């Protein structure tokens, strides 16, 4: 159910990170990570109204559905009929556009996994606020963006509020992965897999064929193929298999994927 109050800040030419978050939360009414269906119609209608109110002149007499179709062709980069966070960031630029900044730094699943391993410094399986602050600070430096401590704090809190779905003040792997473009977020392929500790242990034991306490690339291939095909009811092609394997092995310790790292992928967060 969409919020009844006036949509915030759509009339502004440039948004702060927290204003962007408010707009996102307002229109992603069901909190599923997309603006879609009725939400999308509401968003486009309100955006049109805000632009007219700000003096942006109409240059077309096209119908609402035609204008919306044109709008989606321009901004729906992966043509899935929905608007995700990175696409909204291009429609409504923030002052530093920190979300797009993230995409330049981490543009693929394997880069994302390597970044996760680097910034989960205590190997807890979560990125806490202080680790996230370090991550964002490095990100902004790499992108040559100026920021001060207050701005860094605002970005950290905004990312936490945006992605911390269970409100525990830290991000697990599946929450943080929502920063990735949908087509790069391979974790979405396994999102229906909700394993208990018992199920996970059974799977780990089954695929650790040589019983050495870790999963190697060959064992991981077998596991991914079976789980993907069970979850998606279709075969996993070689190209995607290689891509998923490389992404997950970026979490590994020299090609050895131990329980804790595999837990993050299959369970979304540590279960032990």
UniProtKB/TrEMBL annotation:
One Pfam family here: EF-hand_7
PROSITE patterns given in the database record: EF_HAND_1, EF_HAND_2
Domain EF-hand, residue spans: 15-50, 63-98, 107-142, 151-186, 195-230
InterPro entries: Calbindin_Ca-bind, EF-hand-dom_pair, EF_Hand_1_Ca_BS, EF_hand_dom
Keyword Ligase: no
Record's keyword annotation contains Heme: no
Domain of life where this protein originates: Eukaryota
Keywords: Calcium, Metal-binding
UniProt family annotation: Belongs to the calbindin family.
Protein's name according to its UniProt entry: CALB2 protein
Organism: Polypterus senegalus (Senegal bichir)
């Amino acid at each position: 159910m969409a919020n009844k109050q006036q949509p915030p800040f759509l009339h502004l030419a440039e948004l702060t990170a927290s204003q962007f978050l408010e707009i996102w939360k307002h229109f992603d009414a069901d909190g599923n990570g997309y603006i879609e269906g009725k939400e999308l119609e509401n968003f486009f209608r309100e955006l049109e109204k805000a632009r007219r109110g700000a003096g942006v002149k109409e240059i077309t007499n096209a119908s609402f559905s035609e204008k919306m179709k044109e709008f989606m062709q321009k901004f729906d980069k992966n043509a899935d009929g929905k608007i995700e966070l990175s696409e909204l960031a291009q429609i409504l630029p923030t002052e530093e556009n920190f979300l797009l900044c993230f995409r330049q730094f981490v543009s693929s699943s394997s880069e994302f996994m390597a970044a996760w391993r680097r910034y989960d410094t205590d190997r807890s399986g979560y990125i806490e606020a202080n680790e996230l602050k370090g991550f964002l600070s490095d990100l902004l430096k790499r992108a040559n963006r100026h920021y001060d401590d207050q701005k860094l704090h605002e970005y950290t809190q905004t990312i936490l509020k945006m992605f911390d779905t269970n409100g525990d003040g830290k991000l697990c792997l599946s929450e943080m992965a929502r920063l990735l473009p949908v087509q790069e977020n391979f974790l979405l392929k396994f999102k229906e897999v909700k394993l208990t500790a018992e199920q996970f242990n059974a799977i780990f034991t089954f695929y650790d064929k040589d019983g050495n306490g870790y999963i190697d690339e060959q064992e991981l291939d077998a596991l991914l193929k079976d789980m993907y095909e069970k979850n998606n009811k279709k075969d996993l092609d070689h190209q995607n298999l290689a891509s998923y394997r490389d992404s997950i092995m970026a979490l590994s310790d020299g090609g050895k994927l131990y329980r804790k790292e595999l837990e993050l992928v299959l369970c979304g967060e540590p279960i032990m």
